[in-house]
Amino acid sequence: MKTSQPGGKNPEEVMSNSAPGGSTKTKTKTKRKGGGRKRNPDQRTAVDSEYRAPGRSYRRLEKKREARRKAQREEIYRREEETLRKAEEVFWRKVDETDGFDIEIEGAPCHFGGMSMYKGGDCPLEVKLYAKVGLHRYNMLEGTNLHLHEIEKYVVVCTLMPVSYYITLIAEDPATSSFVVFQTNVDQRSLGQIDFTCYISRPKGIKSEIYPNQFFDAKDLPDKWPSKEAFADQSRFLYKMQKSDWEEHDWIRLYMEISFFNRHRCLNHNMSDLKILDVVVETEENLPHETVLKSLRNVLVYIRYDQDLGADGVCKHIAIVRRTVEPTTHCVCLLGESQLVPDSE
């Protein structure tokens, strides 16, 4: 049994370290300052190079990925723009073909060019009044007696004034109890008074050919009821209407309702509370009484009417409306206002 002396070396270790010829070398290990094993500089460079390479590759890979993502985003945006462009082309072609009355195009938002489309039914009062104006113009031109049955749909174009209404409605002929799809267009220039033009009024399917450019009445209105002197003036042509006249020719009441509505837009309007008292129509030439009522000519209409306020009594008004007709296209411009009459008058 081999034993080692305390503090001595293992014999086998001594033998392994013995040089040929019996000489013995003592192996001395020197510890490098700073700790750790010293590496070959070439090996260190190779290791560092391998360590840095993944970082550079990752950055290059991320740049390629970002470039692909950017290209994909640009392609999606380009396709969306192309889809929208095609939808706009179809939309405006449809607008041109239908004069703005039919703009329901799949894939196209309904607000192109400030245009918004609404279904009929319980539509605003102004739309119903403008629809009646279109029927009034058509009846005057064609000698018909169409009445508003219901609003089917309407398009509002609102960018800057004027606001344009393209109304599709169902009209009824009381004489035959028949119905016809009808279209009318009104451009409204002011909210505080009557100031609008009716360019189109026709059965659907009939194409209008020419339109004037922004046809409006720019002259001032009279500010009061015609005096006795005005009736005596031979240069003026004033016609005092009878109750049977405004009962038979509903355009007179229509002018009163539009005047009242435009003055009191914020109120809850009940047109049945309005009662006509007197009507005077002034023309530019001497005409038969029946022609004044039935022909589409330039006229100035004065209407006295009462508003029934129930327990609060009666409010008196005067409506003054001028109708101007463009001679070539027969477009109708209405300019007017409603005035409150003081109790002293």
UniProtKB/TrEMBL annotation:
Residues 39-65 have a biased composition (Basic and acidic residues). Pfam families: protein_MS5 (PF04776). InterPro entries: MS5. Residues 26-38 have a biased composition (Basic residues). Coiled coil: none annotated. Signal peptide: none annotated. Residues 1-74 are annotated as: Disordered. This is MS5 protein.
